[in-house]
Amino acid sequence: MDPGSFALIAAVVFVGSALQGSIGFGAGMVAAPVIALVEPELLPALVVMFACLLALMVTLRERAHLDLGGAAWALAGRLPGSVLGALLVLVLPVAALSWVVVASVIVGVGSAFLGWRPAPTRTALVTAGALSGIMGTSTSIGGAPMAIVWQGQEPARLRGTMSAFFLVGSVTSVLLLALVGSVTWHAVEVVLWLIPAVAAGFLLSRRLNRWMNAERLRLAGLILALGGAALLVMRLLL
């Protein structure tokens, strides 16, 4: 990889890490479309791997605010969803998977802006977790379903719970992608070089957290989910 490409990827990883450290998700939505344009062979493994590190850092920071019950029900859906996502990587074109993700995000976020706030029941959490597993493993953009079902939560609780969910889910996705041959040594090497960018974004998120309240967090999450879908469309059309 040439220095310019690496610098661009490091920049979007820094921004994505700062956003996810503040609102609980978003690193993949920010980084994946840019990486797809610069070094597409690094996806989805690169984003899923650095998401593991970031989720661990945020989970440790917000551990006092975790909703372990909610995270457990979401993971009950995430794990089989991740298996399905890994299988889809093998059998379906990336473009087809990406259009499904775009449609799902637009429908969910549009409904939320119109006033739909699904209660985080066990059924809703399992369903959202399964969708997140499919989307996150196959396209590296899996935060939108959880942002929709957990919208309106207290900021620290949302960050901690989503990070715990993404930590377990991302580790599972990495293992499954490795099993199907989608994790390369090149991607692992790039992740190691990106650790300073992830750490710097995480540190910046501490300052952003002072500005976030529940409603700002909800709006930021929904807008970011929609923005991720828009970037994915641009990636598909370019």
Can you walk through the features of this model?
- Helix 1 runs antiparallel to helix 2 and helix 5 runs antiparallel to helix 10 (214-237).
- The chain starts with a helix and ends with a helix.
- It has helices at 3-23, 27-38, 45-61, 68-91, 94-113, 122-139, 144-149, 155-179, 185-209, 214-237.
- The chain is globular.
- With 238 residues, it is mainly alpha-helical.
- 81% of the residues lie in helices and 0% in strands.
What key phrases describe this protein's structure?
238 residues; globular; mainly alpha; 10 helices; single chain
Low-confidence stretches: none
Number of helices, counting only DSSP H or I runs of 4 residues or more: 10
**Structural class, from secondary structure content?**
mainly alpha
Helix coverage percent of residues? over 70%
Task: Please compute the radius of gyration using only Cα atoms.
Answer: 16 Å
Following the backbone from N to C, one meets helices and strands in this order, namely HHHHHHHHHH
Overall geometric form: globular
Query: How many β-strand runs?
Result: 0
Rounded average pLDDT: 85
How big a fraction of the residues is strand? under 5%
State the major sheet. Answer: none
Nutshell version of this structure?
By secondary structure, the chain is mainly alpha-helical. The protein has helices at 3-23, 27-38, 45-61, 68-91, 94-113, 122-139, 144-149, 155-179, 185-209, 214-237. It is built from ten helices and no strands.
